[in-house]
Specification:
The structure is a homotetramer.
Chain A (H helix, E strand, L loop, with lengths): L22 H23 L2 H7 L4 H8 L2 H22 L7 H18 L1 H12 L11 H21 L9 H17 L1 H8 L6 H19 L4
Helix pairs in contact in A: 1-2, 1-4, 1-6, 2-3, 3-4, 4-7, 5-7, 5-8, 5-10, 7-8, 8-10
The structure holds a DNA duplex.
DNA sequence: GATGAATGAGTGTTCATTCAT
DNA sequence: TATGAATGAACACTCATTCAT
């Protein structure tokens, strides 16, 4: 979830039992490990023992901070959604012309998915569990609507300036963008086997990204 | 020694619990229950005890016929892919005009995904496991390429008759169709919570299906 | 148990399902496989499935002929004791001078143990089970006493002719012979590791055999 | 913060079932029970459920401390060899005249085997498994060579003082002693049935012990 | 705040055995 | 006589979790 920082990793402090009395860092360490664990093996597939073993903090701390496995999973999910939300809010496409703004939005979203497979996989995991943990997420809902509103404004600006259709529904455009970005990561493995085509390959991904941008633009443009 | 009876097989007693010495029926029963179990809870989340259904006996037969949980999962995955393959091969869109053929293809694919969420979920599960069981599927690869070739022929016919672009790549169209059909089912639960929009709702699904058809046509058409 | 005959093994008959209607051969086949299985892995360690799988006759036949696993084990044990009994009865040492007769007896016994580790291992297995299956053996008891009587006669002849002590008890000599012959095979593996000395090595075995002969002679001789 | 209490450890409550937070005691308890279980029924024949004793909790601790059944078995085997090693090292026969030293050595070894049938049976079990767990024993090898060297010194002293032969090999004497002591316990049950002679009977054992001492002395003495 | 020891319910799997033909 | 299908009890082992310090 976090871009691999250059700052020295934990254990940089001399004493082996470092991080004593730094609960925030302990929590963050656990969350980082747990994110990869849940993204790799899912909720049922991950083992508390493994997560506890990989963390410098002991397994017991998981229960101390997150109550149980499900609590940890929810914290991981929340952290993931918070991360993508903060990214989307930072996107400054409002000043660009509508077509460029839309293209840029799609590019960023596509790239984010490609670079954060853990996010994609966690969303898959949550859907396998029929979204039963979503209700416990504090800010996720507002985040989703925010992204939709952001897109709606772009489409409106395009419609006003005559480059975009007036009859295309933002929810459809939004869903298509999400689907096309998500699928490239989510279904990488089955597609690779069925079509002998690795969507995770960087060359494939780059050309696919532009194809997706093109597809969304064709979907929204008034005239070709 | 044994008179090869002409009488219909034991399958004539549909609802009965009799599974005595009818191995095909026993296997099919297990596969049916296992398909729903794995689709609901994934490979690690499913419990062999639940898969066996109510009888403890059939649970044992899992090991008799499928060796272990993973073998059963593979058989389920294979059955699922075999089913969708046979459907796709039965599609007769070759006689329709290219635009209608493409539209019909998308509609059928969209509908199949909507009506077979267990297929979608099994594919998600397999991707969570990084496709490690795909290699054991016998005919899946040829199936995938078949669908792509089917689409390629339609696009070619459209390009020849001047209604479709010549510069659109079949793999991109194919991926987009799959993504748009898949996402509606796969991400139903998270989207429902984030956007307060249930893609599984029949009304929503119907309008979404036409939106997807439209999007794909706009992607392929030479002129709007 | 049986010296590896040169005669063609089973499956020499063309039809794959050969041995139909040859129950004695079927039983013998099962016993042969079972002997090696029980000798290798013990009673609890052997698997009926394996034994049934290695036999050309099906697993089900084991129950048909031997009732259950324990019945098969008893039959194996009995066959083993019958084999060694027939060998001992065939030994013609009564005509030799006492010292040579005793030496020859020890040599034969030592060699038999070395060449039939399955026998030694089965006896170990039976002792692990505290001899609870011995009672079901029909002729074993008479066999044991026969061997003791055979030795007793030799010792008596030696005592009469003045070469052997009169005060050595046959049971002690018999036990010593058995112990020294048995141990070389039974404890081969632990000794090999503890002393870095492989008693199963043919060179070691040959020199050990003569050492045992010498030891027994020194035990029985009146004068050195 | 915590006053380091001077009060004695929990081991002061010997018979109590309290095994709380006393890992050494817990391990020792498990090993004790497991020793008897493995000695009685072997590795495959023993049931983890039985080994755990009455409490289901201690059953779980097997995996906590010994990883699995095999790990527990190895620990048991190691403990057994460590016990006999410490006994042998404590033997002070170096000051006795050679003949008495040898006699005493044999007596002690014979008695140890008689009084520790579980040791004998564990060695049998390990040989049934072809000594595949011996390699994991830490100190066993040095132990075995120690006993051989102890015997070698006695034989050397005897040879130097003219009471023992110079041409008898220590490895042969050592093997004979082991064989004669081992067999009395290992083959008790089959011999009892075949010869109607219980080597475990105390009277029989006592006379047999002296017979073994005599046999070994006759083997080593220069003149009778 | 932090930890090693302990726990009970349940996991996938294997076993010897029997059924129906 | 012979066999593939079926079975229930038990098996070794793992899980998330809690206790005592």
């Amino acid at each position: 979830m976090k871009t691999p920082a250059v700052q020295p990793r934990k254990k940089s402090t001399p004493a082996s039992n470092a991080r004593i009395n730094d609960p925030e860092r302990t929590k963050e360490d656990i969350l980082e490990i747990a994110t990869h664990a849940f993204a790799r093996d899912g909720l049922t597939g991950s083992r508390i023992n493994d997560i506890g073993g990989l963390t410098a903090a002991s397994k017991r701390m998981i229960y101390y901070y997150f109550e149980n496995k499900e609590g940890l999973y929810r914290a991981v999910l929340e952290r993931c959604y918070a991360d993508i939300r903060s990214r989307e809010e930072a996107i400054g496409v409002e000043d660009l012309p509508p077509e460029e703004a839309l293209a840029q939005l799609v590019r960023l979203k596509f790239t984010y998915h490609m670079e954060h497979p853990e996010f994609v996989r966690l969303v898959m995991v949550e859907n396998i569990h029929q979204g039963e943990h979503m209700r416990y997420l504090k800010e996720a809902r507002t985040r989703g609507l925010f992204a939709l509103q952001q897109l709606t404004r772009i489409l409106q600006r395009g419609a006003d300036s005559g480059v975009f259709r007036k009859d295309v529904r933002p929810i459809d455009v939004h869903t298509s963008i999400s689907a096309l970005c998500f699928y490239n990561v989510s279904n990488r493995w089955t597609v690779a086997h069925l079509l002998e085509h690795d969507m995770g390959d960087v060359t494939h991904a780059a050309s696919r990204r532009e194809a997706v941008v093109d597809e969304i633009l064709r979907l929204c443009r008034l005239k070709v």
